[in-house]
């Protein structure tokens, strides 16, 4: 983590007061939360919607902070404590992260995409750890607060940082990529998440392509080669990056030559290697995520023949394709972290392809932030469900009822159950869980369907 004297800090950010009396004070790490602050930290008080972090500056010092930032327009700063007065504490934190990143002799991989960015981040970290000391974004710390905090937590001897970049609006990834200044950039896909804010898939592609604004000259750009919104946009961007593509077909630099799902995960081969790859993660779309990660790792000197070692140790961030034992001998696949029409269809395809289960049940909840066409998207998901490969359909939420409505046309009302009360859904679902049944749970994060998972797992 960052370890700098105050004198060094004032050369990294715009400080507006005289710090000569404590110029030699050393800070170790940063925090903007007094509940997790550690001795020697630089405390960064941030203004939130309901609370102002400046209210807790004195408490931060009481708990061991060495120095604190203070925003110039906030009155009544505490006296007799070392403060760095700045124009804006959030901007100062971002500026500090940007400066610190430039001082570190490491490589940065930036990952974004409508779906799969966290999974790809996790895969990248495992693969690159075969050769380098790697740190990665913790959880989903992928925004204007989390990314700077991740960078400021990097150790001096870290060789590769894998940073996830999320967004809801135009300009967000532009900010993040210019802080991180990546050596490699990965776009996993262009889906339909955040249509409410970005308007169209073209808008989503434009926002994701902002990741290139901070990519170093001669850097590596990895993306799905079958996505015309990226390939067409790239034609109009002057660059000297190394461009590599992944996808399903042989038009890409890396593509699968065979692929199958087993009880324990995915097994696949690729055109660039004679090895058979196995990873404990289900889904063709996760194989695509793996191909993106493998491309970066290969370009950075990790041999394909070593990659199975990393896949064997792969642990994904929670609620992303987590398989657990359920009650009555059932199996529960938890993919309840988030959902969009693209990712929902991918999970439905996965469930349909899996064999060997006595019963297959999907529990689907509302997909949020889809804009004015949200009803149409939910009806489309209901129609996408196949009664020949799925036995029962459960839905949760107001929009989930539209999934159920469309599904009933193919399944009939006896196999489709719509709920707006989660406890009632859980009670009804439990009555259908038998030995070797498979339950897949998918919804937007706001629906909190992990509560269903918790209720039906052992």
UniProtKB/TrEMBL annotation:
Keyword entries, A-Z: ATP-binding, Cell cycle, Cell division, Cell shape, Cell wall biogenesis/degradation, Cytoplasm, Ligase, Nucleotide-binding, Peptidoglycan synthesis
Q: Which GO molecular function annotations are given, in alphabetical order?
A: ATP binding; UDP-N-acetylmuramoyl-tripeptide-D-alanyl-D-alanine ligase activity
A GO cellular component annotated for this chain's UniProt record is: cytoplasm
Q: Which reaction does it catalyse?
A: D-alanyl-D-alanine + UDP-N-acetyl-alpha-D-muramoyl-L-alanyl-gamma-D-glutamyl-meso-2,6-diaminopimelate + ATP = UDP-N-acetyl-alpha-D-muramoyl-L-alanyl-gamma-D-glutamyl-meso-2,6-diaminopimeloyl-D-alanyl-D-alanine + ADP + phosphate + H(+)
Which top-level enzyme class is recorded in the Swiss-Prot or TrEMBL entry?
A: ligase
Binding of ATP, residues: 113-119
Indicate the segments forming the Mur ligase C-terminal domain, all copies. Answer: 319-445
Question: What stretches pass through the bilayer?
Answer: none
Q: Give all residue intervals belonging to the Mur ligase central domain.
A: 111-297
State which pathway it belongs to.
Answer: Cell wall biogenesis; peptidoglycan biosynthesis
Provide the primary localization. Answer: cytoplasm
Q: Where in the cell is it found?
A: Cytoplasm
> InterPro entries annotated for this entry?
Mur-like_cat_sf, Mur_ligase_C, Mur_ligase_C_dom_sf, Mur_ligase_cen, Mur_ligase_N, MurCDEF_CellWall_CoF430Synth, MurE/MurF_N, UDP-N-AcMur_synth
Q: Which residues form the Mur ligase N-terminal catalytic domain?
A: 27-100
Q: What is its EC number?
A: 6.3.2.10
What GO biological process, any one, is recorded here?
Answer: peptidoglycan biosynthetic process
Question: Which SUPFAM superfamilies does this one have?
Answer: MurD-like peptide ligases, catalytic domain, MurD-like peptide ligases, peptide-binding domain, MurE/MurF N-terminal domain
Question: Which NCBIfam families does this chain map to?
Answer: murF
Q: Which family does it belong to?
A: Belongs to the MurCDEF family. MurF subfamily.
Role noted for this protein: Involved in cell wall formation. Catalyzes the final step in the synthesis of UDP-N-acetylmuramoyl-pentapeptide, the precursor of murein.
Task: Give the protein name, as stated in the record.
Answer: UDP-N-acetylmuramoyl-tripeptide--D-alanyl-D-alanine ligase
């Amino acid at each position: 983590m960052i370890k700098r004297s105050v004198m060094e800090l004032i050369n990294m950010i715009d400080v507006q007061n005289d710090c000569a009396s404590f110029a030699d004070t050393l800070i170790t790490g940063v925090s903007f939360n007094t509940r997790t602050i550690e001795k020697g930290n630089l405390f960064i008080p941030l203004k939130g919607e309901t609370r102002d972090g400046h209210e807790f500056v004195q408490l931060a010092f009481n708990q061991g902070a060495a120095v604190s930032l203070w925003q110039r327009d906030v009155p009544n700063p505490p006296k007799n404590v070392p403060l760095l007065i700045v124009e804006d504490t959030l901007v100062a934190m971002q500026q500090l992260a940007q400066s610190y990143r430039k001082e570190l002799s490491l490589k940065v991989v930036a990952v974004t995409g409508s779906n799969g960015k966290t999974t790809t981040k996790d895969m990248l970290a495992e693969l690159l750890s075969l050769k380098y000391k790697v740190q990665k974004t913790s959880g989903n710390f992928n925004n204007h607060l989390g990314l700077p905090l991740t960078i400021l937590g990097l150790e001096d001897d870290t060789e590769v940082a894998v940073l996830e970049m999320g967004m809801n609006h135009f300009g967000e990834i532009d900010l993040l990529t210019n802080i991180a200044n990546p050596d490699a950039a990965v776009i996993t896909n262009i889906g339909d998440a955040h249509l409410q804010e970005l308007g169209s898939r073209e808008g989503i592609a434009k926002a994701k392509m902002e990741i290139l604004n901070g990519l170093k000259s001669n850097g590596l750009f990895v993306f799905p080669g079958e996505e015309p919104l990226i390939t067409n946009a790239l034609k109009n961007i002057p660059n000297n990056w190394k461009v590599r593509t992944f996808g399903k077909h042989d038009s890409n630099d890396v593509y699968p030559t065979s692929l199958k799902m087993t009880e324990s995960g995915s097994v696949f081969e690729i055109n660039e290697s004679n090895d058979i790859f196995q990873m404990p993660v289900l889904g063709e779309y996760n194989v695509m995520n793996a191909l993106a990660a493998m491309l970066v790792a290969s370009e950075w000197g990790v041999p394909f023949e070593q990659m199975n070692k990393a896949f064997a140790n792969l642990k994904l961030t929670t609620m992303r394709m987590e398989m657990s034992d359920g009650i009555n001998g059932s199996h529960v696949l938890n993919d309840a972290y988030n959902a969009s029409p693209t990712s929902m269809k991918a999970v439905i395809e996965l469930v349909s392809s899996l064999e060997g289960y006595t019963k297959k049940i999907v529990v689907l909840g509302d997909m949020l932030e889809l804009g004015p066409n949200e009803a149409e998207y939910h009806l489309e998901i209901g129609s996408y469900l196949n009664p020949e490969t799925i036995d029962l359909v459960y839905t949760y939420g107001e929009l989930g009822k539209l999934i159920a409505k469309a599904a009933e046309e193919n399944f009939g009302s006896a196999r489709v159950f719509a709920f707006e009360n989660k406890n009632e859904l859980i009670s009804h679902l439990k009555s259908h869980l038998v030995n070797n049944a498979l339950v897949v749970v998918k919804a937007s994060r706001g629906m909190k369907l992990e509560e269903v998972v918790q209720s039906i797992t052992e």
